[in-house]
Design brief:
The protein is α+β, with helices and mostly antiparallel strands and about 400 residues long. Among the domains are: about 35-115, OB fold (Dihydrolipoamide Acetyltransferase, E2P); about 275-385, Aminopeptidase (3-Layer(aba) Sandwich). It is about 30% helix and about 25% strand. The chain contains 10 helices and 21 strands. It has helices spanning about 70-75, 140-155, 175-195, 210-215, 230-240, 260-265, 265-275, 310-335, 350-365, 390-400, and strands at about 1-5, 10-15, 20-25, 35-45, 50-55, 60-65, 95-105, 110-115, 120, 125, 135, 160-165, 200-205, 225, 250-255, 280, 285-290, 295-300, 335-340, 370-375, 380-385. Strands 4, 5, 6, 7, 8 and 13 form a 6-stranded antiparallel beta sheet that branches. A 6-stranded mixed beta sheet has the order 16-17-18-19-21-20, with helices on one face. A hairpin with a 3-residue loop joins strand 9 and strand 10. Helix 8 runs parallel beside helix 9 (about 350-365). The longest helix is centred in the middle third of the chain and has 24 residues, at about 175-195.
């Protein structure tokens, strides 16, 4: 983590010295995602099955019919699974509503809102308006899954939901219950503030960049957190105490010395390389990434890989390296949507299975939901990855503008 002279914050995640994820924060470009507002519906658009909600920010939130929680539908006498529900029967101009920002605006598009509220904690994501129970797919132990689900059923009330985060697998039952109680208290404060709001206002502010990263990343797989700002160093220690994560204080280190933190770890160069269309592989091959409006096309090339005695081995090596690097590039570039990968053709079915296994293994490391579909006989693989925030190129453009 580093702080520039203009107060821009940058947070990088490294694995084995390789840059895997990068995030930017700046006081003049604060994210709205996660914020909860009491807003006033300023316009209902029946043709689009949506409405626009004034929440007191620069742009109104776009609220689609699909983002209305089940409770709101049932209050109006509709079933959640019903089709063709007219939005005008649910929302009206001037109506006050509690809404959360689920996606920042992109370009001229308005931010997107939802009434399906979610409040993330250390171990749970609390869903006060949805009757659901889930466990992170990264919790692979069946024993842990059963323990977490059993506890969740004893904690949650009818009509509310809980999703266990990855860190829940390392938490005690007491820790899990304490986190749940804190989230319920946060929601109760939101509800109390909403009752007294007569105009658009902020009810709940999502955590800042540094706090959110620590909440989401800190665990036994993080070796250390290095920060070059004495201010953030102290702030992090206070935050860990507040979140009852004091055991992780030993992993926090303050960077000292004449060389800038990001320069020392070669992060700036890796950021610039990640914007290139062609990405070289260690064995001499490469991947070429082409972005279009419809999808992302990635082509794998063998190049000059001559480390193996036969062509099949060279192709397998290139495809294995490509599978690992492609998963990294999806995370680093924040690529979303449909991704089609053209691996180098392989004749050996066992080699094909190795590539499939590698793709699946690497996608599991992605905190954003990314699904591997299958490999066709032509060596084409389709991957779908959900959107979460800005792409790397957008973040860099905004960071440049803010600076």
């Amino acid at each position: 983590m580093t702080e520039d002279g203009d107060k821009r914050t940058r947070v990088a995640l490294l694995e084995g010295g390789k840059l895997m994820e990068i995030y930017y924060g700046h006081p003049s470009h604060e994210k709205l995602v996660g914020n909860i507002y009491r807003g006033r519906i300023e316009d209902v658009v029946p043709g689009m099955g949506s409405a626009f909600v004034d929440v007191g920010e620069r742009k109104s939130l776009f609220l689609s019919l699909n983002e209305l929680n089940d409770g709101l539908l049932e209050e109006k006498g509709f079933k959640p699974w019903q089709a063709g529900i007219p939005v005008g029967k649910l929302l009206r101009q001037g109506q006050m509503i509690t809404v959360q920002v689920r996606r920042d605006g992109i370009g001229t598009k308005n931010p997107q809102g939802t009434t399906k509220i979610s409040i993330p904690g250390r171990f749970w994501v609390y869903l006060p308006t949805e009757d659901r129970l889930g466990v992170s797919r990264r919790v692979e132990s069946v024993r842990d899954q059963r323990r977490i689900r059993r506890l969740a059923r004893t904690l949650k009330k009818p009509g509310e939901g809980m999703i266990a985060r990855t860190a829940a697998q390392w938490a005690t039952d007491e820790d899990l219950e304490r986190d749940y109680r804190l989230l319920v208290e946060s929601w109760d404060r939101v509800g109390a503030a909403a009752k007294t709001a007569t105009s658009a206002r902020l009810l709940y502010k999502a955590m800042g960049l540094v706090q959110a990263v620590l909440r989401d990343w800190m665990g036994p797989d993080i070796a250390e957190v290095v920060v070059d700002s004495p201010f953030f160093y102290e702030k992090i220690h206070s935050f860990l105490e507040y979140m009852q994560m004091g055991a992780h204080k030993e992993q926090i280190r303050l960077h000292k010395g004449p060389e800038p933190l990001f320069a020392k770890h070669d992060i700036d160069r890796q950021i610039q390389d990640s914007l290139s269309r062609r990405v070289p592989l260690a064995g001499g091959g490469s991947i070429v990434i082409d972005e279009t409006e419809a999808l992302i096309a990635i082509d794998v090339n063998t190049g000059g890989d001559v480390r193996h005695r036969n062509q099949a081995a060279a192709i397998l090596n290139t495809n294995l390296e490509a599978a690992t690097e492609i998963a990294r590039q999806l995370r680093l570039r924040q690529i979303s949507g449909i991704i089609v990968v053209d691996f180098v053709d392989m004749d050996d079915s066992q080699h094909v299975q190795q590539i499939i296994d590698r793709v699946r293994e690497e996608l599991k490391k992605d905190r954003v939901s990314a699904d591997f579909v299958d490999m066709t006989g032509l060596g084409l693989v389709e991957i779908t990855r959900k959107r979460r925030g800005e792409s790397l190129s957008d973040m860099l453009e905004n960071a440049k503008f803010d600076a």
